[in-house]
Specification:
68% of the residues lie in helices and 0% in strands. It is rod-shaped. It has 78 residues and is mainly alpha-helical.
């Protein structure tokens, strides 16, 4: 084999390997909703949840106690 033939074989092998690497390196097309933009999510500040004030919590507690007392009373009648 001459040097030119060996060089041609190596170049064709290199091209084949480059095509294989490109095929494996490209991301697989996904179906469905695209993922969120990671850059936008990283820069956005997390939303802070607003909690209940003690007065609202106490009022909610009273409402739920009345609700469950009513349910318990209805269950005893049946």
């Amino acid at each position: 084999m001459s040097i030119e033939q060996i060089l041609a074989l190596l170049i064709s092998e290199r091209d084949r390997l480059n095509r294989a690497i490109e095929a494996l390196g490209t991301p697989v097309k996904r179906r469905g909703r695209p993922p969120k933009n990671p850059l936008a999510a990283a820069t956005a500040a997390p939303k802070k949840r607003s909690g209940m004030s003690p007065a609202k919590r106490k009022a909610q507690s009273a409402r739920m106690k009345a609700y469950w007392a009513k349910r318990k009373k209805q269950g005893a009648k049946e």
